[in-house]
Write the structure tokens for this entry.
Amino acid sequence: MEEIINRLPELSLAYLGISIRRIGIAIGIFFVFLLLRKVVVRYIFKLAAKFTSKTKSEVDDNVLKAFENPTRTFIAIFGLYLSLRYLNLGIIFNNFLSKFFRSSIIVLVAWGLYNLEGTYSIIFERMGEKFNLKTNKIIKPFLSKILRFLTIALAIGIVAQEFDYDVSGFIAGLGIGGLAIAMAAKDSVANIFGGIVIIMDKPFDIGDWISCSKIEGVVEDINFRSTRIRTFSKALITVPNSHLANEPITNHSRRGIRRVDFKLGVTYSTTREKLQKCVEKIEKMLIEHPDVDKEKILVKFDEFNDSSLDILVYYFTKTADWEEYLSIKQDINFKIMDILEDEKVSVAFPSRSIYFENTLKSQDKDE
């Protein structure tokens, strides 16, 4: 074992043409950059984060976070590049190493841009300020995915050219093959254009409560092919964009109010005076309720039903949120019950009375 260790310098010179001293220096260079990477991340990035946190805009914070991991990887790759260049392993290897290093820079920049495009802010904040645009929650992720795709495609093309691959023929072939692909995947193309129509027309936004055909729920996401809707039973439904683009959509979130419409049936034994008092008290209660829209409130004695005297109760809550709507409706129902109890009026239920023209006579068991 000692003989092998003593002969390491001779073996390295014989097979690699490099002295053990140069190999040790190269390894040392690499480890210095690994140590430098930790210093940069631990101190320099933390110091920069303190400065960016004091600014009003979140753009600089997002840029710093997006390029943190690429910068850390770049320092390690740069250390590896310098250590291998120091070894001087030949012209062919050095040329390959240079191409690898340049390609790594391209990939790392694309990585940082990819992360940054996921945060939306730097792009859409500047667009909004310059062109006075109000970007909604659908446009942001949709355009972000397009930019991410273009970033990846551009990075792959530049790296391929760096290694002397001719990508012009491939790009030209996309024009010819595009027609065949479009015909074979016409449904997918229809979904993409359906997504574009939804974005341009803006019938709903992410987080809106919508209903379409037999589907009702909250919009969670929209992508190139489909829109994801979370139903109130917590099921996730994926709807093709072409279907949504061609169907009528009801956006419950944009109306701001929600209707409550029902008939309250009381018994026929209720006197006229008590019935009128109940109508007046319920109407007054709705007018004074802070969560009821005052524009349209109707409380009227509506009709003589088969087994009840029906009072029409018609009003709108000031919110379209499903949970808040149910809470307001519940509170009003309890107050209606209190009014009926105060007036000693009973709620009717479906019933039928039978009258006999002749009095029925019961027979004794002894007879």
